[in-house]
Amino acid sequence: MTTIFFLLLIAGTVGITYFVLRLFRNFMARPILEIHLSPIHNPKWTDLEKIRDLIDSFETKGFRSAGDYECSEIPSLIISGFVYPSQQMTGIIYDHPTGSIWVDIVVQYSNGGSLTVSNAPIGHSLDHMPQQEKFYLKESSVDELLEKIQAERKEAGGITITKEEFSSNFEEQYQKEMRWRADRGGPTYLEIRTVAEKNGVHTDRERLEQVKRKIQDAWMREKKKPKKVRSVTYLADLPEKFQRPDEFRLTMEQKSGAAPLLSVPVFPVYLILFSAIAYWCYFGYQYNKTHFPISLIALVIFFVVFLILFLIAMLFRNFNRSVRMYPVLRRIASQQVGAFLFIQGNTPILFYARETWIGKVRFDEGGEGENACTYLEARIKQSLPQLSVYRKGVFAGIFTDKDQNIVQLPESDFSRKFEVWSTEEEFARRFLNEAIRDRIIRLADISNPSVNISGSYVHVEVSSDFFKPSKEATLKQFLSEAEIIIGSASQEK
Description:
Blueprint lengths: L1 H26 L9 E3 L8 H13 L3 E8 L6 E7 L4 E8 L3 E9 L5 E5 L13 E5 L5 H11 L13 H18 L5 H10 L6 H20 L7 H4 L9 H11 L10 H26 L4 H40 L3 E6 L2 E7 L3 E8 L8 E19 L21 H5 E5 L2 H7 L2 H13 L2 E14 L9 H19 L3
Parallel strand pairs: 6-7
Antiparallel strand pairs: 1-2, 2-3, 3-4, 4-5, 5-6, 8-9, 9-10, 10-11, 11-12, 11-13
């Protein structure tokens, strides 16, 4: 019995590690005064069918997609943006596991004011900024929200937001409101009480005052922090818009770190670390046999020591991967036109600075339901219509409600293998000429490929992780094909 108990403890420790780290994140949460949106492709929607219906509702009413985004400051939040320049309106679909799915439609005015109608399930009890009108119509459709905003909007003074401006405008408006709330000291007593009552929580004034003081203390601490510039987390990201290649390269190289070096043999380090983990597990097993039932303190000590050893082993593994890949990426950078190496922390990253596009190579090992992948993402000078190319059957059903945007190509090896979706069929047919189709088919010989274009963002991906020295030749082959595809996109008018 004691042996089974201990074996279960060992088996669960690694899994529990993940949840402990998440709990730490939740306990240390602070008011988020600034956010940064990053474009994503193939977002993991919580209810794909509902999202399809909402997207169709926006597009039917004349809105154009401004892209899908994630937010590093608010994990699991996905935002889909829409713009209607002629009507000076923007639309936003929010998807978060804890807040379900909701929609905002916004009109901004030149005097700094705005009008928002929303079917959000929460937020009704919070005060609004001066000049910011908000109407909440819970469970209303996009059509009903549009009717409301047309009835309430002012006749003139609206601001036009283009799809290229959507993400930066969204970040700016979010920061503007959060700074206003921070200047007020955070949520007021009345806001806290109203929210508590709406959620069925009834408590006395003294208790609510205590809660208010704790919340407002957190807001004030966050407000007093020096304003962050995008530090190392964002340092290695592509800019939101195309930059002159020489300026981009100079800026990145000035901020690049030192090359990762390992001054000790790898095998002895791994041997020591895994021997220590094995010994600690054996020691715990023997301790459990002689002291069962063990105390909570002993259990915590075992867990903490195991966690520390495990994390050290994982950190060393990642560092060793970077050290081994550094000479590989350096060789590739010396051979590819416009390529250069950037060091973020201990991680080597391959960038491009070409005349008509700037790019970055990313690697992902996968995990937690995510597939491994390698992709080259780029920013080009001009804005292009949306286009997606996928292997047939891989994302079956994603575009089934948008048959009008499926591009039917002439019968060929390419059309039999790939599905093409685009907001402008003429552009898709022009871009996917014989040479580009041939490049995509060559990528299919390497791994499952996909190509995505949205505005000035171009993304070429294969579903394999090439962040390994043994994959150097395959990585070069992928980059050669991807560079040509992105270069062709950058030449489109």
